[in-house]
Design a protein that fits this description.
Elements: E1 16-17, E2 22-29, E3 42-46, E4 49-51, H1 60-74, E5 77-78, H2 82-85, E6 88-90, E7 99-104
Antiparallel strand pairs: 1-5, 2-3, 2-7, 3-4, 6-7
C-alpha cells in the first residue's frame, strides 16, 4: 500500500507455465541433413521413456543436445522463461542447422 507507513507492496506472483512429464520434440528446420532426419520428425519423452514413431530414427547427437532442455520442460517454469517464450534448440552440427521445438504435452481431461 503506497503512502501508508510500515506497509510494503507485495511483489506480483510470477505466472507459471506448468511442466508435464510428457514432452514432444519436433524438427522444425534442417538445412543440410546428414542423416535421415527431416522436418516434421519428432519424438516424445514420457517420464523417462523415449517414444519414436514406428520406423523413425533420430540423430543421437541431436538427442544429446536436447535432453537437458527436455528435463527442464518437464518441470514448472516461470511464464517468462526463455524456454516457454522461445522453445527452440539447435542441433550440434552448424552446417546441418537442425532446429527442434520443445513443447510440454498436456493430457486432455476425460469428459
Amino acid at each position: 500500500m503506497r503512502g501508508v507507513p510500515g506497509s510494503a507492496a507485495l511483489p506480483p506472483t510470477p505466472a507459471i507455465s506448468p511442466g508435464s512429464p510428457r514432452v514432444r520434440v519436433t524438427v522444425t528446420r534442417v538445412d543440410r541433413p546428414r542423416g535421415r532426419t527431416r522436418v516434421g520428425d519428432w519424438f516424445e519423452i514420457n517420464g523417462s521413456r523415449l517414444i519414436l514413431p514406428p520406423g523413425q530414427s533420430f540423430c543421437p547427437y541431436a538427442l544429446a543436445a536436447v535432453f537437458p532442455v527436455v528435463v527442464m520442460r518437464q518441470g514448472d517454469l516461470p511464464a517468462d522463461s526463455w524456454l516457454v517464450r522461445k522453445p527452440y534448440i539447435c542441433g550440434p552440427d552448424a552446417e546441418e542447422n537442425l532446429v527442434m521445438k520443445v513443447e510440454a504435452v498436456y493430457e486432455e481431461a476425460a469428459g
